[in-house]
Automatic annotation (TrEMBL):
Pathway(s): Protein modification; protein ubiquitination
Sequence ranges of the ARM repeats: 259-296
Pfam family, one: U-box
Record-level Gene Ontology MF annotations: ubiquitin protein ligase activity
SMART domains documented for this protein: ARM, Ubox
Protein role: Functions as an E3 ubiquitin ligase.
Domain (U-box) ranges: 21-95
Name used for this protein in its record: RING-type E3 ubiquitin transferase
Domain of life where this protein originates: Eukaryota
């Protein structure tokens, strides 16, 4: 029987089923190849590392198929995507991609740059090229241009790649409406800016198709400037309009790739209170799309969202908690939060009853990672959760279930969890909880009890020595770093 299994495996490897298509997000927009060393740039786009360095070396800025323009000022390794690509190759029986060297990348970019016609866009591997920043700065000195205008001149044409043709056709009937709106959004008169963003906010509040049609690179670029306006009405209504746009699922990735998230983060840190409420909602909405989660964390949203949990505004607190919950579904963001010292802060909120249900959801996600478990075990999470279950003072049955789910996540912490649970008399309490909880709660309790009872009859453990062992605690911390 063993021999037949071995023959089956060999046959499977030699004759795999139909190879799945390579996801577009695994391919570098510039090289057109599967990425071996993907990096996230400041605008949230992902490229092969040497392609970014080549673009910077040659002062070259592409325009992507969705019309967005990447910002190469910051380059951060996209480890989550790299791991995902390697897993995809492994499961698809493909050789892992090899990084292209800098000379090859430079030749690609140089060819792309050389084939560009003046005042026109040229496509290469699905990317449209625009004038370099140096060339665009050759304008009469008396004309004042913003940083956004230096990339896309107001008087110049707007370019769309062939992959965005359907969007262009959809927008065409409303081009006059878009142009009219843009004139006011880019006006130097504050009253016209205010009128435009208020009108835009109303326009996108209920009309779903309008949200999609007016979520264009030009409008997003204009909003990016107005979001950080020092005028209350302009800032508030700009962010609120962006929230409306983000409600359309087709817009979520487009908004992130427009480079607007850093501006949102700035407002969350130091904007007007009502604007911060809308920003928390916008980040929550954008975080619902799996493609955005890693990039939002890389762009620096986690620290201000964590701080916003203490906001005076209830709406800001709740939307920030929901944003953090969805962002921590990604391992890279869990690790970042642990390094920020979030565990102690979150446990403190739970102990005081501060948004207990939502905070427990975040802690459940953290408990699913080795770093999060180690920090929570060191921070007294087991004792905290057992104490909560003993008091039974929960907002709802779902909150009780979340508490048990977090405790179950910690149960994967091995001997350290067993020792802490024994010290907190968790087993006796869980037996009582099992008799009165919901079916979901009972299921979690049974799984935790299985862990606590596993091998107890066969092994003698000095729990007191284990709990007081500095070596063990240090080892847990090392594994979380």
């Amino acid at each position: 029987m063993g021999t037949s299994k071995q023959r089956w495996r060999i046959s499977f490897h030699k004759s795999p089923s139909k190879q799945p298509p390579i996801p577009i997000e695994f391919v570098c927009p510039i090289s057109g190849s599967l990425m071996a060393d993907p990096v996230i740039v400041s605008s949230g786009h992902t490229f092969e590392r040497h392609c970014v360095h080549a673009c910077k070396s040659l002062s070259f800025t592409p325009v992507l198929p969705d019309g967005s323009v990447p910002d190469f000022s910051t380059v951060i390794p996209n480890l989550a995507l790299k791991s995902t690509i390697l897993n995809f190759c492994r499961s698809s029986f493909l050789d892992p991609p090899k990084p292209i060297n800098f000379l090859t990348a430079e030749n690609l970019v140089f060819t792309l740059k050389a084939t560009r016609k003046p005042q026109d866009a040229t496509r290469f591997n699905g990317v449209r090229v625009m004038q370099t920043e140096t060339e665009l700065n050759r304008v009469p000195s008396h004309i004042s241009m913003s940083s956004e205008e230096s990339v896309t001149p107001r008087s110049g044409p707007t370019y769309y790649s062939s992959s965005s043709a359907s969007d262009f056709e959809t927008l065409n009937p409303n081009s006059f409406e878009e142009d009219e709106l843009l004139v006011k959004l880019k006006s130097s008169q504050i009253s016209e800016q205010e009128e435009a963003v208020i009108s835009f906010r109303k326009l996108t509040r209920t009309r779903e198709e309008t949200r999609f049609q007016l979520c264009t690179p030009r409008i997003l670029s204009a909003l990016r400037v107005l979001i950080t306006s020092r005028y209350v009405s302009v800032q508030v209504n700009s962010v609120a309009a962006l929230v409306n746009l983000s409600l359309e699922n087709r817009n979520k990735v487009k908004i992130l790739r427009s480079g607007i998230v850093p501006s949102l983060i700035d407002v969350l840190k130091s904007g007007f209170q009502e604007s911060q409420e809308h920003v928390a909602g916008a980040l929550f909405s954008l975080a619902l799309d799996d493609q955005n989660k890693t990039a939002i964390g890389v762009l620096g949203a986690l620290p201000p969202l964590l701080h916003a949990l203490r906001s005076e505004s209830e709406r800001t607190r709740h939307d920030s908690a929901l944003a953090l919950y969805h962002l921590t579904l990604v391992q890279s963001n869990r690790a970042k939060l642990v390094k920020l010292g979030a565990v102690q802060a979150l446990l403190g909120m739970v102990k005081t009853g501060h948004m207990m249900g939502r905070i427990l959801l975040i802690l459940c996600n953290l408990a699913a990672s080795s770093e999060g478990r180690a920090a929570m075990l060191d921070g007294g999470a087991v004792e905290c959760f057992v104490c909560m279950l003993r008091k039974g003072e929960f907002e709802s049955e779902s909150t009780r279930e979340n508490c048990l789910a977090a405790l179950y996540g910690l149960s994967h912490g091995g001997l350290r969890f067993k020792g802490l649970a024994k010290e907190a008399a968790a087993e006796e309490l869980l037996i009582q909880v099992e008799e009165m909880g919901s079916e979901r709660a009972k299921d979690k309790v049974r799984k935790i009890l299985e862990v606590l009872r596993q091998k107890d009859e066969e092994e003698e453990v000095d729990w007191e020595k284990l709990l007081n062992s500095d070596d063990d605690i240090s080892q847990a911390r090392i594994s979380s770093s």
